[in-house]
Amino acid sequence: MYTSDEIKRKLWDGANDLRGSMDASKYKDYMLGLMFYKFLSDKTLETFRKVAGISDKEDLINQFKQSYEEYGEELLKMIQDVLGYYVLPEHLYQTWLDDIRSGDFELQKVIDSLNNFERTIAVTDEMDDFKGLFSSSIIDLNNSALGSDLNKRSKNVKDLILLFADFNMVDLQEGDILGDAYEYLIGQFASNAGKKAGEFYTPRQISEIMAQIVAKTTDVTTIYDPTVGSGSLLLTVRKHLSEQAQKDLHYYGQEYITETYNLTRMNLLLHGVRPEKMNIKNGNTLAQDWPEDPERPSEGVQFDAVVMNPPYSDKRWNDREEMPLKVSDPRFADFGVLPPSTKGDFAYLMHGLFHLGQNGTMAIVLPHGVLFRGAAEGEIRKRLIEKNYIDAIIGLPGQMFTNTGIPVCVLILKKNRKLGNPVLFIDSSNHFTKIGKQNVLQEKDIARIVDTYIEKTELEGYSHLATREEMIENDYNLNIPRYVESIDNEIPQDVDGHLYGGIPQSNINDLDMLNSTVGDILKQSLDPIRLGYVQLNQSISEVIEKVMKDERVVVKSEQVKSDMQTFIDKYMAIIRTIDKETNLVELKEAMLTEVKEILSHYDYVDEYLGYQVVAEIWKNSLMSDAELIAISGFYETGRLRDKNMVTKGTGDKKRQEQDGWIGAIIPNELIVKNLYAEEQTAIEDLKMRVSEIDSELSELVESAKVEDSDEYNVLYESIKKNDEDEPQDAFDAKKVKAELKETAKDSKEYDMLKKVDQLMNEKTKNNKKIKEDEKELTEAVYERIEQLTDEEIDDLTQQKWFGTIQHDMMKLVEAPIQKELATLEMLNTRYKDTLESIDKEIEAAEKSLKELMSQLVVK
C-alpha cells in the first residue's frame, strides 16, 4: 500500500539511480514513456478482465493469452471499442517482466513492442491522441546515451522497466495518484534540466495562481493553452473545478516541440482525461492559427479559459522568410500593429486574446518588459487599456524558474469588463521563501494573491486599483512600482531626540496595537520630559511583563486557543469518516478557509500565517495519511504497520532490507512518548548516567596525562597508547585490572584504580542494560501498533497533526503586540544617550586620563 508521496519518492530516487550522466531533459522521455506504456498494458489487462467477465485477477496474463489465441481480432476489437487501443499479449509490459525474471530479456523485444503499438494505432485514424508517443525519434532505445554497447543499454532499460513493476497503474489512476506522480516527475526533471526546463514546465506555484483565478471566477467548460508544454496548466485549472465540471471539461492545446507534445498527451491521459475530451496538436502556434472555425475564419474558436506560459521575448516568433505574419492577420488586426520582430511576448498574448470567449478569463505569464517597453509594444499596451481588456497585473519574484532568473508577471485579461472598472495591480515580488537557488511562493503567498484578486482589495504596499485616468497619466506605462508604492518600515531618526533625549511622542502614537489594547499601561509607563517627547519611567522588561500578563492580552490568547480547539474537534470528527468518496482537496480547502476566517476576527493578526500553518500540516503528513485512511478506514489504518525498509550497501551491492516495523500513520516515537513514557525515561536516565561516567573518566584521563600529578603516578600506565606509545583518550580495562592486582588494597593508589574500574564496569553494565531495554521497548512498540485502542488512536493522531496548532496560533495573536514592544525597546535604546550625556562621559574619561598621567613618575 503506497501513498502518493511514497510513490513519488520511490520513482524519483529510482530515476536518479538509473539515469547516470544522461541529461535530465532527455532521460525524462525514456522514463515517462515506459511509465506510460505500463499504464497502457495495465489498462489493456483490466479491460480484458471486465469484458471477459473474469472476477479473479490471478493469472490474468495467461488468461489473456489463451483468450487471444481463441478469439483473436474479435477480442482485440472489444478492448479497442472500450479503450480506443490495445496491447497484444506478447507485447505487454508484464511480458517484459516475465522475460527479465526468466533471464530471457532482450532489448529488441521492447523495441518491437513499442513499434507494434505505433503500427496498431496508425490503422485507427480517430485515435490521434496515442500516435507517435513511442516513435523511435523520441524513445530511441539504441541511443548510445543509454549505454555504450548493447549489453549496457539492455541492462539500463531492464532496470528502468523494473522500477514500475510493483505499481498497478489502473488502481493508482483512480485517486489521481498516478497523474500526480507523473506531474511530480515532470517537475523534478524540470528542476534538474536547467534552461531546457522552460520548454515543458511551469512552476507549480505560478500554475496555482493562474488556475485558481480562472477556476474561481469563470464557468469553464472549454480551456485552451496555445503553448501547452507538459499540460500542467490545463490540469491545474481542472483540479480546482467541481467534479461535474471536470467531467464536462474539453481540453485544447498546441505544442511545437514533439517530445513535449508527447508529454502533454500522456499527462492528460494518465490523469483520466478521456481521449474525446482532449484535442492536442503538434505545431507552431503563431505560424498558423489553431484551432480555426472554417465557417468563421476571421473570428477564431472561442474558449472559456485561455492559460499560457509562452517563451519569453521570443526572438524568432515571426522568423519565416516565405510567409511572415502581417498586421492583417485577424489575431493582430484589431491592434493595428505587430509586436517587434525580436520580442514575441505580445504576439502570444494577442493570439490568446483572439481565442478568448466574451465571458472568459485569460491568464498569461510574461516578463515585466511588456509593462513598460515602448514603440510597437507601447501601442499594443495602449490599445489593451483603451479596449478595457486588462483586469489585473500580478508581479512575482525573480528566480522562480529554473531556466531564467528574471522576475515575471501574470496578466489577467477579460473581454466583458464594465467600462470604468479599475485595473488591479498586485506586487508580490517580496513575498517568497528561498529554497536553494530558487524563490518559492508558499501556500499563504498564493492564497493572498488569489484572495486579493477575487475581492479586489487595496492593501498598502501590496495592491492598488488603478483607474484609466491614472494609466493615461503614466502614458500607458504599467510598470507596477508606478502604482504600488513599497512600504518603508524603517523608523526615521529624530535629531532632537538624539541631542536632548526622549522618545518622540509621534513614534509612540504609531504603536497602534499597544495603544488600542493596553493604552493605559503604555501611558502610565511614560513621562513627558518636554513638548513632544517622553521617556520610560520603569525598565522595559517591567513594561513587557505588565503588557503580556494583562488580562486583555491573556484573554485574547485564550480565546484563540479555544477557537482552535473547536477547529480541531470539528475536523478530527471529519477525518475519522474519510473514505474513497471523500474529496481530499475540498477538505483541505475547507480547513484552510476556516482557519483564515477564524484569525480574521483578531485585529492586527496576519491570517495568512495561520493559513500556512494548516497548509504545512497537510503537506507534511495529513494528505498522505488521509489517502491511507480513505482506503482502509480511520481506526483500521491507525492499527496498520508497515515494514521499515532501509537502504544498505552501495553501488552494485545497494539493496533494500527490512529493519523492523513502523506505524502506517502513527509514528513509533509518538507511541513511545505517550504509552511507554516510564520505560523511555528509565532508558534516558541510564544514558545520562553513562554520559556522566564518560565525563568522569575523561577528567581522570586528562589528569593522568599531567606529569607529577597523583593521577599521573597511578593511572598513566593504564591509559590506552597508540603504536608510537602516545596516550589516547581512554583507559585500557585490562591494564586497570592488572594494576589493581598488584596494588595494596588499603592504599590511595588502590582507591584511585578501583574508582576507574568501577566506573568502567558501571558503564559496561549500563550500556548492556540500555541495549536490552531499547530492544524490549522497540519490540513492545511493534506489537502495540496493532493493539492500539480507538481512544489511543484518537489521541495520537490528534497530537501528530494538531499537536502544536494551538500554540502556533496563540503566537500569531501575540506576535503583533510583541513586535511593537520590541519597537518600544529599540526606541528607548536609541534615544537613551543624549549629546550632553555623551559629552559628560568624554569629559570624565579625559579627567581620568589626566589624573593617571600625573601619577606617572619618570626614573
Automatic annotation (TrEMBL):
Pfam families: HsdM_N, N6_Mtase. GO terms for biological process: DNA restriction-modification system; methylation. The keyword Calcium does not apply. It is an enzyme of class 2 (transferase). The keyword Methyltransferase applies. It comes from the Bacteria. Keywords: Coiled coil, Methyltransferase, Restriction system, S-adenosyl-L-methionine, Transferase. GO terms for molecular function: DNA binding; N-methyltransferase activity; site-specific DNA-methyltransferase (adenine-specific) activity. It catalyses: a 2'-deoxyadenosine in DNA + S-adenosyl-L-methionine = an N(6)-methyl-2'-deoxyadenosine in DNA + S-adenosyl-L-homocysteine + H(+). PROSITE patterns: N6_MTASE. Transmembrane segments: none annotated. Its EC number is 2.1.1.72. NCBIfam families: hsdM. This is site-specific DNA-methyltransferase (adenine-specific). It comes from Macrococcus hajekii.
